[in-house]
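Collaborator request, handled under Task 6.
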Amino acid sequence: MKKIKTKPYGEIEVSERQRIYFPEGIIGFEDVKYYYLLDSREGPFYWLQAESIPELAFLLVNPRLFMEDYELMVREEDIKSLNPESKDDIIDFAIVTVPEDPSRISANLMGPIIINRKTKVAKQVISLNEKYTVKHYILDEMKKRNANLIKSR
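Structure tokens returned to the collaborator:
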């Protein structure tokens, strides 16, 4: 166990198993290579906390939780660069933005984070799905999903 300072929780203990390596960094933060994936106390979210910069943390969510037909579509080379043994080794997240008006919380589906859950190597990639943008309003997407569920009954 190791202690780090975090944006959401102050100083906490983290496990080596939570440590994620981004060889290329994250877009806009290319020099920051190590992060910790932390469970959030706010429901289905996670925090991606920079190891050495307490104020740098990204809120993440599994896009399938709010968008029923979400499909990860990225270049095959991006997946291969993480050296997965199988497709199940790869997990993916969307970066979440929480503005002053929480009803406008959004997820970036254009630049997903992909992680090899076994090796803990990760990359931010660009989606090949033209439907996805950098701002998908999560509550709006959930309303659409619920409306579709009601229609299908």
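The cover message to the collaborator said: "The chain is about 10% helix and 35% strand. The helical segments are 76-80, 138-151. Please let us know whether this matches your experimental observations."
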